[in-house]
Amino acid sequence: MTDLLWLVIALPLLGAVVNLFFGKRLGEPVAGGLSVGVVVASWAIAVPATLSFVTGSGQVETIYLFSWIPVVGADAAILWDPLSAVMTMIVTGVGALIHIYSLGYMRGDERYPRFFAFLNLFIASMMILVLSANFAMMFVGWELVGLSSYLLISFWFTKPEAAAAGKKAFIVNRIGDWGFLVALMIIFATFGTFDFGTIFTTAPGILTVGAATAITLLLFVGAAGKSAQIPLYIWLPDAMEGPTPVSALIHAATMVTAGVFMIARAAVLFELAPVSGAVIAVVGTLTALVAALIAVSQTDIKKVLAYSTISQLGFMVLAVGVGAYTAGVFHLATHAFFKALLFLGAGSVIHAMAGEQDMRKMGGLRKMMPVTFITMAIGWLAISGIFPFAGFWSKDEILAATFAKGGAFIVLWAVGLFVALLTAFYMTRMFVMTFLGRPRWDGGTHPHESPATMTVPLIVLGFFSVSAGLVNTPARLAFEHFLEPSFVGVPHIKGLTLGLIVTLAVVSLVVALAGVTWGWLAYRRDELPAEDGAFWRRSLEAFAVDDFYGRVIVAPGKRVSTWAAETMDPRVIDGAAHGVARGVLRFGSVLGKLQTGQVRGYAGGMAVAGVILIFVFLAVGGGF
Amino acid sequence: MPVLTILIALPIVGAIVVALLPKRRTELVYPIALGMSIPPLVVAMYVLVNFRVGDAAFQFAENVVFTEAFGIGWIVAVDGISLFMVVLTALLFPISIAASRSITSNVKSYMVLMLILETGLLGVFLALDLFVFFAFFEIVLIPMYLLISLWGSENRAYASLKFVLFTATGSAFLLASIIALAIITGDQMGTLASFDFRNMLQTELSSTAQFVLFAGFGIAFAIKVPLFPFHTWLPDAHTEAPTAASVILAAVLLKMGAYGFLRFNLTLFPEAAVSLAVPLAVLGVVGIVYGAALAIVQPDIKRLIAYSSVSHMGFIVLGAFALTTQALTGSVVLMISHGLTTGALFLLVGMIYDRTHTREIADYGGLARVMPVFAGMFLFAALASAGLPGLSGFVGEFAVLIGSYLTLPVLTVIASSGVILAAIYLLWAYERVFTGPVTNPKLKVLRDLGFREVAIMAPLVVLIIGLGVYPKPVFDRIEPSVGIILDRIEATTDFEVPAEGRLSGVAEIEYGPVHESGGDN
């Protein structure tokens, strides 16, 4: 069953290669069909191997493929355990739905096969990341998803914004990757290997707290890049320049969760570094808060979802920071469903509105797009944390675990709760502005429901957004139990009694309902409320963080480079070289007077200099 | 069969054939020169296939004594370090010659010079008699100078002169050091002199002698690499040179310096190498950051790539002087990769230059719409150069960084920032040249790459992917040869390679007896 798992990587890769080289000749239906087919096939191959963990017959396995970089002992090898199984299901499952959705969404694009080639490349990269059995191979996937993301964000490259956004995403991610890379250096210097099995079993015995802290904080720099945490989250909102299915697949459901996944994978190391855990929890909470404060004022429907993604990623990071790895992965899974749903729903709306993304020009779409409306409603309630939708269970588990840590973590819990309130508010705002109230679009627009290739994925995702939470309720922790083999040696969260959990759940539910009510009362009117005042303005411009980075990092960096290029290199270094050359020439002209003819002077000078040099070398060399 | 001698001689034979072509039949020059560059590649492949894996000793050795008295002889042999330099050379010449279609003036001389250059480079990597080595080292200089000064662009006179003066300065030190070392060696053997590398390995040198000779060799190689602050000849030479010369310059010529460091500085003067490792690694790391920082703001695409070379060569030097198996092996792999990726980038820039006659980034924009195949190729080469995993740039760079951290942690962390900078300069350049709307009307009519151009790029693309995905065969051939360098350093100094740095399992291999005349088949 696990023998074929390499195909989960190889098939999408094959799809990418075929579409890249022959896509044009294949034509739209074949190119798209092939692309969907390989992802569905990958999913189908992984299903039985995943089910074996559910039935309890499955074993954690390492499948050796080939030796990659022998000097550092880096192999291509697959680690198949419940954690990688869950990720595989999400990536190939949600991925397949988004591929199907794209068949309709991208119809008529002149680079249609190219788009599917890149989507397939992304799935392959993500599977390398998820299935890797060592840090080196994980890094390969890690960077390749960055590449796929770059290619897909800047897919419509003739738009300068799209090209710039893709580049920005790649470079900011590379800054994160740098942290990962340095962590890898320390890991190799400490363990002499990148193999997960060896590292995780020996780490508790040999790793000092200092080394563990350094490694985990650096790994977290990497995670902050991929999972869009402070201070590296700035690429994700811009990434919305990509086609909407890309936003759903990469910038909501899968790639951005890579950081959370990586921390969960290396849980053993993070457990050895309590300081790192605290730092991560604080950064996660702050990210959740700041992103939510920006999301409330956005008028572009995709920007709302982008910031809400950053905010939800903050929750996941908070979870793994406090050691609630299962809760983090659980929220990762439910979020994958409802956020993919929300993005695809938004895509359906944008499609219907002929490209319009400004919610102020929407409204009243409920009647024209019933399927989109109903499924979006599910997504809205799920992310808002309303019982019994998926987000309720997973978000609540994170908050409960944070609360149970006690001490200063109670503050993080309180902030988290506030973010939950904001989330319910801004998602209600988005939902109401889009679907309810009176239409605010002009006469030329004729909104319509999207074709079946687009609505069927919405329905499937809607189903999971309702039900996915039920796999891990406080009454029946099936998901936690399922993941146990992946977290051997990682302690459980202490102090979580059923009574406490239920109490906290009621509190969060009340808060979520309050947020929904607030948003409903404020926006369910004929006229949209005026959103002005200092807070709204700052929030709308995302607190001008991009400008700040531009002034503090980019501009000075460019000035230094320019100075080096215009002064240091030509004047200082070359200046010195020219000085030496002039001196030699003067010396040469003196010699030239002794000899006749320039060439002979040059040769003579060389010979004299050479002989002198040889004598010098011989003298010190002991030849005499 | 004297395989290596044949290999070195074949390009010269080709040069003679081309030179003898009838004056009026200029149309024959290109195909015949191209044809003449194939046999060396075939022989190089033969050597590659028959190279014994896991054997650290020199293979395919030939030894003919010229003069007993001066200890000069024709000693050529190949080991894991030179093997891939030879293959890279033999591969890039047909490609560069094929890419020289746009040369119209004096094609014959051009091709003759190219083929002479190939002989020179092959000789540098294969010669183990230092007198002969030096001769080849100098032979390389002349055709390269002429190629730049006769077929280069506007500022070629300055660039070619600068190239010669920088290199010749280094050569003076190299020659003096070689002669001194030969005399010292001869003295200890009871002859007048010996230029035989194997004899030099046995020579006892005082500390001072090691340092001075290390410096003499080192200056020549540092200029060649080029190591900061000796790099300023490179951007000029690269920018002004015709495409093929740029390719050979970046892909092969610079490797002479790195190869020299490994073959001679580390091996012949271990004590000095250990003491001077840190300063040299510092220069390497400065080069990485400095080269990258300058690449970012270059307005000329060729200069940008030239500065990226300075940055990449810094990684190679860092790896060489980190003195661990991983770093040294990675360094050699990075030399191969840099040859492939930078070669590819210069070829691509040459192809667009042939069409537009401008290298200014600002003159471009939106090119991906007009020339999608070209854009794809360029992005591919740029990403490979920026060290994207799965492509060749990564494996060498990764091994260098992982290995260098073991002995030089702080420097290596600084060096790794080059990874970020590389993404910045390459992707920003890509953005400006290829994306956005097509603003310049002249660009709208450009045709995409033709069959010949794609065929020129294809082997590089395949090798870049191959080396990135399955580099094991390459590592397996390099590692033993690198292992003995470290063994020698450990045996003769009190330097100890950290335990993780010797995971290779290459235990105690010696420079075995040189098998006379191709003793491997």
Short précis:
By secondary structure, chain A is mostly helical. Chain A has helices at residues 6-26, 28-55, 82-105, 112-131, 135-153, 160-191, 196-206, 209-226, 235-238, 244-253, 258-265, 267-271, 274-295, 301-321, 325-352, 370-384, 390-405, 409-435, 452-467, 478-483, 498-523, 534-540, 545-594, 598-621; strands at 61-69, 74-80. Helix content of chain B is 71%, strand content 3%.
Structural class of chain B: mainly alpha
Largest sheet of chain B: 2 strands, antiparallel
Pattern of helices and strands of chain A: HHEEHHHHHHHHHHHHHHHHHHHHHH
Mean pLDDT of chain A: 91
Biggest protein-protein interface? A-B, 63 and 78 residues
β-strand amount of chain A: under 5%
Principal-axes shape call of chain B: globular
Using only CA atoms, what is the Rg of chain A?
29 Å
Written as H for each helix and E for each strand, in order along the chain, the element string of chain B is HHHEEHHHHHHHHHHHHHHHHHH
How much beta of chain B, percentage-wise? under 5%
Count helical runs of chain B: 21
What oligomeric state do these chains adopt? heterodimer
Describe this structure in words.
The complex is a heterodimer of chains A (624) and B (521). Chain A has 24 helices and 2 strands. Chain A has helices spanning 6-26, 28-55, 82-105, 112-131, 135-153, 160-191, 196-206, 209-226, 235-238, 244-253, 258-265, 267-271, 274-295, 301-321, 325-352, 370-384, 390-405, 409-435, 452-467, 478-483, 498-523, 534-540, 545-594, 598-621, and strands at 61-69, 74-80. In chain A, a hairpin with a 4-residue loop joins β1 and β2 (74-80). In chain A, α6 (160-191) packs antiparallel against α8 and α16 packs antiparallel against α18. Chain A has 2 domains: 6-541, no CATH class; 549-621, no CATH class. The N and C termini of chain A lie far apart (75 Å). Chain B is mainly α. Chain B has a domain at 274-497. In chain B, 71% of the residues lie in helices and 3% in strands. Chain B is built from 21 helices and 2 strands. Chain B has helices at residues 3-19, 29-36, 38-50, 80-98, 107-126, 130-151, 156-189, 197-202, 207-224, 233-240, 243-268, 270-296, 301-322, 325-356, 367-370, 372-385, 392-407, 409-416, 418-434, 451-469, 472-492; strands at residues 59-67, 72-78. In chain B, α4 packs antiparallel against α11 (243-268), α12 (270-296) packs parallel to α19 and α17 runs parallel beside α20 (451-469). The longest helix of chain B has 34 residues, at 156-189. The interface between A and B is large, with 63 and 78 residues.
